[in-house]
Design brief:
- With 585 residues, the chain is α+β, with helices and mostly antiparallel strands.
- The longest helix is centred in the N-terminal third of the chain and has 66 residues, at 12-77.
- It has two domains: 9-327, PAS domain (Beta-Lactamase); 408-573, Histidine kinase-like ATPase, C-terminal domain (Heat Shock Protein 90), CATH 3.30.565.
- The protein has helices at residues 12-77, 79-82, 86-99, 131-139, 182-188, 226-234, 276-328, 344-407, 413-436, 444-459, 478-502, 543-553, and strands at residues 103-109, 115-118, 143-149, 156-165, 171-180, 198-203, 208-212, 238-244, 250-258, 268-275, 441-443, 465-471, 475-477, 506-515, 518-525, 559-562, 566-573.
- The strands form four sheets. It has a five-stranded antiparallel beta sheet. The protein has a five-stranded antiparallel beta sheet with strand order 7-6-10-9-8.
- Helix 8 (344-407) packs antiparallel against helix 9, helix 9 packs antiparallel against helix 10 and helix 9 runs antiparallel to helix 11.
Length: 585
């Protein structure tokens, strides 16, 4: 991992100030975390407060609903209403209405939903399609409607309806009450509500029945924000959540759903919302004040630490820095010279002086190493001259092979290919030697398969010859690698010739193993095999005669037999410095 560019250049004083700053960092972190926890706690309190307010206003709405139900139930028990006595019921409704001005209208309907008595409506007015009347006839229970505009005075209202039950258990009429939504204002104006918070009452369809304090962004009779209404519908009967209100302010919402007995759908939901930022503002102010106080203390601590560092170790640091600068420009004799100083800076100065002495010693060692490398280079030059001498010897061997071939007769195409294979085997030794960068020896396990491929290309053998190679890693010097390559070339070439004469698929196997400093080479095929009286010395060709001589040059002896085909073996010492073993194998 690479270092940051500023790290090497920082001073010890700067490092100390950085350490002090790092030590103060947890305090800042604690203040920030504590502030965040306080903010979360205030958020929880705000949500709980919104829920308490919604529950409190919900209780007021329950009392309004219950008082309306009791009033209608008392009227429904009177004979004038059960007998649908228009004149008597009409006088009673007007009297009750006068005592309860929060209602817009009170009315009595027959079984067809037509008004038979009312405090304001005309007799015969059809209310059969009003939601509260429809629900009362269908459920035979006290029911509520939804937001509506009264037929008289065109004032927004919320409706209630109570059934008149006959002897058959079915409604034969309803008593209805319209509660003026403006009455909520008079009812709730005594409550102290934060000017940035609001109270809302909505009907079963999400239409605002009341909003306090009034705002143009939240008019009565219009649906509440769809996302807010969705979250209320999906929630429990009471709950809290956080969302953006219609005026674009993020608020904590608390709500309570009110239900009539037997009605699965809430007829009214009370909502109380308070702004989040105002709640969190107090926590943020406290956190900001604490962070500023901590920052002032940290700045004072850094200034004090900077002054003390100059007094306590500034001068000694300057002397250490001056010594470092002299050493950097090559003056290895520079020393700090804090002898007897056992402080941390004294130990650093001592270590620096010791380092300078070590660098001086290493400089002298490098000079000695340079002289040693010069000697090695001279030895390498001698080695290259030796390699050139070996190349000269190999060229002389090549010339001898050509003359031997001439002594056997005319140089026909077959003889030329054999000569080409021998020369290529020697050339390959040099190529592997120079290509590896090791001018002393080669690995015969790599040499054998490459030579086999070269011989296949040289003699253009057909696909009826398959070669198998199994070689241990055997390292051999140049003086022994050349005769080994020539020997392997002669034995493989002989196997190829037998394969061509046999006219059938033949497998040629090369096996090279090493054990206890001796290598064993085996070249075999599954061709027609050798004659019973086979003797390489009595053959007409030059190849096997050379093989016998090359085996002796390696320090071994060529052996042969028939084992499912011709097989030749030779065992020789890997290290030329060992005494050759001519015992054969």
């Amino acid at each position: 991992m690479s270092r940051r560019p500023w790290l090497p250049a920082i001073s010890i004083r700067g490092a100390l100030l950085l350490i002090l700053a790092a030590a103060l960092a947890p305090a800042f972190h604690i203040i920030a975390v504590t502030g965040a926890e306080h903010a979360r706690h205030m958020e929880e309190q705000a949500a709980e407060e919104a829920l308490r307010q919604a529950a409190a206003f919900g209780d007021i709405q329950l009392r309004i609903t219950e008082s309306t139900r009791q009033m209608l139930a008392v009227l429904a028990a009177l004979p004038a209403f059960r007998e649908l006595n228009t004149d008597f019921a009409d006088r009673i409704l007007k009297s009750v209405h006068a005592e309860n001005p929060e209602y817009l209208n009170l009315s009595l309907t027959d079984g067809a939903g037509r008004v038979t008595a009312s405090s304001l409506l005309a007799i015969g007015t059809n209310l059969s399609n009003r939601p509260h009347v429809v629900r009362t006839f269908s459920t035979a229970r006290f029911s509520t409607g939804e937001y509506l505009i009264g037929l008289v005075q065109s004032e927004p209202s919320f409706s209630y309806s109570y059934p008149l039950i006959g002897e058959d258990g079915r409604p034969f009429g309803t008593i209805n009450a319209l509660y003026k939504l403006s009455s909520y204002g008079t009812l709730f104006e005594s409550f102290e509500i934060d000017p940035d918070s609001f109270l809302g009452i909505v009907d079963r369809n999400g239409i605002r029945l009341f909003f306090y304090p009034p705002r143009d962004t939240n008019p009565v009779g219009k649906p509440v924000k769809s996302e807010v209404w969705r979250r209320i519908q999906e929630g429990e009967d009471t709950g809290t959540f956080q969302d953006v209100s219609s005026d674009g302010i993020v608020r904590f919402y608390g709500y309570r759903k009110l239900r009539l007995e037997g009605d699965p759908v809430p007829y009214i939901t009370v909502v109380y919302a308070t702004p989040r930022d105002k709640i969190l503002g107090v926590s943020r102010t406290i956190t900001r004040r604490n962070l500023l106080a901590m920052a002032g203390a940290a700045l004072a601590a850094l200034i004090l630490a900077g002054g003390l560092s100059e007094v306590l170790f500034g001068r000694r640091l300057s002397r250490i820095g001056a010594a470092v600068d002299r050493i950097r420009i090559g003056d290895l004799g520079a020393r700090v010279g804090f002898s007897g100083d056992v402080s941390d800076l004294g130990r650093i100065a001592g270590a620096l002086d010791g380092m300078a002495e070590a660098v001086q010693r290493r400089d002298a060692e490098k000079e000695e190493e340079a002289r040693r490398l010069v000697r090695l280079l001279e030895e390498k030059s001698v080695l290259l001259k030796e390699v050139h001498h070996r190349v000269k010897n190999n060229l002389q061997m090549t010339l001898s092979l050509i003359r031997l071939q001439e002594g056997q007769g005319a140089l026909d195409a077959s003889s030329l290919r054999g000569l080409e294979a021998r020369i290529s085997s020697m050339a390959m030794v040099h190529e592997m030697l120079y290509g590896s960068g090791n001018l002393t020896d080669i690995d015969l396990s790599e040499y054998c398969p490459e030579l086999l491929d070269l011989l296949r290309d040289t003699f253009s053998v057909a696909g009826n010859i398959t070669a198998e190679v199994d070689c241990d890693p055997v390292r051999c010097d140049l003086e022994r690698a050349i005769p080994f390559g020539l020997l392997l070339s002669e034995l493989v070439t002989n196997a190829f010739k037998h394969a061509v004469r046999s006219g059938r698929p033949v497998v040629v196997r090369i096996l090279l193993k090493e054990e206890s400093g001796r290598a064993r080479l085996t070249v075999s095929d599954d061709g027609p095999g050798l004659p019973e009286d086979f003797d390489p010395g009595n053959t007409r060709g030059l190849g096997l005669q050379l093989a016998v001589a090359l085996a002796g040059q390696l320090g071994g002896r060529l052996a042969w037999d028939n084992d499912g085909g011709a097989r030749f073996r030779v065992e020789f010492p890997v290290d030329a410095r060992k005494e050759p073993d001519a015992s054969g194998s």
